[in-house]
Each structure stands twice: as C-alpha cells, then as structure tokens.
Amino acid sequence: MPSLPRTSLLRAPLLVVAIFVLALLALYPGASLRAQSVANVSSPSVPVAADPPAERDGEVADMYVKGKQVEVLYRNTGRTATSILGELQVRDQDGELVATATLVEGRTVGAGRSEKLRVAMPSLAPGHYTLYAVVDFGGDTLTAAEAALEIKP
Q: Which of 132, 136, 120 minimizes the C-alpha distance to 7?
C-alpha cells in the first residue's frame, strides 16, 4: 500500500463529491456490492509478547460492506486514549484512486477500546475495486485494512 501524507486524510471537497456520488448510487438500484477477503494490513511492527504495548498503537481489525455502507472496526491497542482520523479510499484495478470518503475526524478512542466507523459507499461504475480503510491514530505509522469489491452491471 502506498504511504499517505497525513494531509491526504482531510479532503473536504472530496466529501462533497462523495455525497453527490452516493445520491446517484441511491437512484441506481442495479449496483451490487460485495466485499471479499478482508485482510488486515496494519503496521508490520508488532510488539513482542513480552513487551508492553506502545503508548499509542491501533489497528483496523475488520472492514465489510453492509448495504450501502462500509463498516470499519478500529481497535486502540495502545496504553492511552487517542484521537483518530480515518479515510476510505477506493482504487481501481490499476491502483488509481477513484473515490475517497472521510471515515472519522477527531474521535477519541480509549485504551483497549474499539469503535465501529461507518461511511456511505461511494457510487462506482461496474468493475473490480479495492477498498482501503486508513486510520491515523497519532503513532509513528498508519494502520489500514483492504477488501476486494466487485460492482456488477
């Protein structure tokens, strides 16, 4: 997964486009959404079992499409409450970014707690896509999960 600058998480103009696209999706009943093979791609720097958890750490534990929404389960695995920022990215088969939507902005998640984040599914043409749920928990790295998506004609 390509690295993302923190500023890419806040794209207000794209939110307006995403809302417009979602409105179009609501008017087009022929779209069939199906998430496949959710795989956690969080930071490879996992603490050793004997080491205590990092002060700030987190993971995207699960992601799936439910109706016309994408649901993401974020878990704070660190030892302190953190404020999180998150973005849903949709990429086509060539890896080109075709849509983004804000998952969360500034929500505080307590140490050891989980949060379910929901965002409306962007409207997409028929085809194969990869969804990425990217969350910045204020640590040294970002955490993310990906899922395959097929929109049938």
A: 136
Nearest to 151 by CA among 36, 12, 20, 19: 36
Identify which of 9, 131, 14, 111 has the alpha carbon closest to the alpha carbon of residue 69.
Answer: 131
Q: Name the 3-class secondary structure at 132.
A: strand
3-state secondary structure 52-108: CCCCCCEEEEEEEEECCEEEEEEEECCCCCEEEEEEEEEEECCCCEEEEEEEEEEEE
Q: How far is Cα of residue 141 from the mean position of the Cα atoms in its chain?
A: 15
Domains of the chain: 7-43+55-151 (2.60.40.10)
Length of the chain, in residues: 153
Residue type, 24: L
What tens digit of pLDDT does each residue of 133-143 get? 999 999 999 99
For residues 105 and 121, is the Cβ–Cβ distance under 8 A? no
What are 63-92's pLDDT values in tens digits? 988 888 999 999 999 999 999 999 999 999
